[in-house]
Amino acid sequence: MTETPPTAAAAPGPVLVRLSPAQESMWLEQQLHPSAINGGFLSVLVRGDVTAAQVRDACLVVCEDNPQLRGLVTGGSEARMAVHPAPDVLQFEEQPLAAAPGEELAEARRWYRENRVGPWDLTTRTPIAFSLLDHGGERRTLVVGVHHIAFDGRSKFVFARQFLRALDALRTPGSTPHRPDRDLPEHPEIDQELDQVLQYWLAADLPSLPALVLPRGDGADPGEEVRPTPRFDLPAADCARLGRLAQEAGVSFFTGLVACLAAVLHSYGNTRFVVGIPVDTSVPETRDHIGLQVNVVPCLIEVEEGAGFRGLLATAGRALDLVRRHRRVPFGWVLRELRRRHGADVSQGAFDRIGVSCPTVVRDLQEVPGLEFDWDFFAPNSTRSFDLILQLRREGGAAYGRLDFTAAAIDPAAAARLTADYTRLLERLTERPDTPLHLLDEGYVRAPAATRSGIPGQAAAGRGSYRELAAAAAGTDVSPVIHCPVEQFLPTPAISAFSRAGGRIVLDVVDPALGRLGGCAWHTDDPYGTWLTGPSPGLRFRVTDPAGRTLPRGVPGLLGFHGDPRPGTFRAWIDADDRIRLLGLADQVHHWVGRSLDRTEAEAVIASLPDVHEAAVLVEPQAGGATPKVSAVVVPAVGTDGDPRVWRRTVRRVWPSGWPQPAVHLVDRLPRTAAGTVDGAGLGAELRR
């Protein structure tokens, strides 16, 4: 098979064409992650006297008119797309699906996600597949599953117009559904633009980019599945004020929506972060092509101290100017070349953490006599392009949206919190555009009274030690109630056994700068949870960012006191019931290029594994923001398997997603300082010997 000029004419056999830069990037990414899902779907409910054959033929016409929809990717040193005649590769099926009137599209969504979403082998399946679901009578829903290598967000509206035109022609005697043959779009060289993008990000001090702080909810459910929140509505009055403010600032309405998201993230303590923006790369000559003509452009937003919403509109406007300049450079190329040329790894958390999309919704769709259509363009995406992506749509004078999120990044309660904050803040921001952002929200909580805690009697006056905890774990004769500094505690199986046997563990929380905060009663029902169940009486707690700004409930930060400007040493967040969840010491969190690794969390996960006596995690930062080297150190319980290969598999199986894979080491003991803390320097020296 030889490479020939790419035309849409149906040839006797396959025609070999080049992948575009964006397609090539997507194909290479799929080779690295073959089990990933890189597709989405849309659907349309058709009511009226139409046959399955007519629907099938209309789908066939669309595929014939758009060569990329009938291509299979070939292997080899350079990937190419073999474009086949549409009848040879059309994927079309018919299925019965019971659905009450008015519930057809919801049932079609459910059916597709449960039965058809999965990895897409582009070497054996073309990038588009059709499922016609028969609900009985004259009700059918066509679900269009698409891989993004040849179909993007704008293409769904192009498909709708072409499908309706083809269906109308097929039902009208003497009409022809086809358009004249056309060439596939040309792909201009972008090397110079790529260099400009790389220079921009190299000058942006990527190594110091902090990890994004997001609200906490009921606890993350690990997994990469993309989940949607319910739709939320932005009132017309708020949108009207936003439109006027955007016009006064000389920016677009979409820029205003991005600025509102930036304000929400700022309310969580973020002042410097990256937002990914899907952008249309088509030109007038290619607007009616179905294909990959949407790119993702990361843009850096820095919120100035004391800024109000007017200032944030200008900041967002400058960021989106960057999007327009860099829109043709594939997102995957930026990640690859920053890593290849400059050793900066910005994947998994720096550039793909959060995005915002607000495409133009097409409403001027053709009518087909005798038929009614109800389109669902807002179906949840099955692709993990971001950990979170805010899907926004403008309709008339109002707007609406949905947050698609991965369960590993944020849980449903926290996702609902983010969308509620967006709606609430849009009203405040547009009503008070000159008020400094940090004054729009002021949230502190009064700690519950000591009598409400799980610790009866007086809180411990003195601090315990790791040795008390070690004695309990070893089963020696100790008091039924032991005290230990919270920063020295790990929930090992031996400690859990002590707790189940009736022993009580009280963890003392003493901040080196602020003094005693209270105590925690740990129990095995919540092994990873360390709640401040016994706060010191009379204290009014708050959570702040490092600058001392109070953060709202549910957002992690530094635990301190209301009225005291000093930031605390312990990380924590406060839930809706005024409970304080401790997350460990601030210096246990290591940041690099928009990501973070929490040693406290990692050590707790490893320590709770069966047959673990002790555990520690060491993190060695690397120059230039490169991924740090991580060591997981395990002291196995006496008499257990000491095979390093077994422990390596066991530790990596529970290691938190998105963190650098650790080197796993087995030792007989952990060296400790006189205070009982792990001697990290001494342990590191032992591992290097």
Keywords:
Chloramphenicol Acetyltransferase; 24% strand; 689 residues; five-stranded mixed beta sheet; Rossmann fold; 16 helices; 28 strands; alpha+beta
Characterization of the model:
The chain is of the alpha+beta class. The chain has four domains: 15-171, Chloramphenicol acetyltransferase-like domain (Chloramphenicol Acetyltransferase, 2-Layer Sandwich), CATH 3.30.559; 191-370 and 379-439, Nonribosomal peptide synthetase, condensation domain (Chloramphenicol Acetyltransferase, 2-Layer Sandwich); 442-588, 3-Layer(aba) Sandwich (Rossmann fold), CATH 3.40.50; 593-689, GMP Synthetase, Chain A, domain 3 (2-Layer Sandwich), CATH 3.30.300. The relative contact order is 0.10. The radius of gyration is 29 Å and the shape is globular. The chain contains 16 helices and 28 strands. The longest helix is centred in the middle third of the chain and has 20 residues, at 412-431.
Which percent bin holds the helix content?
25-40%
Question: Class by helix and strand content?
Answer: alpha+beta
CATH C-level name of the largest domain: Alpha Beta
Oligomeric state of shown chains: single chain
Number of helices: 16
CATH topology of the largest domain: Chloramphenicol Acetyltransferase
What is the approximate shape? globular
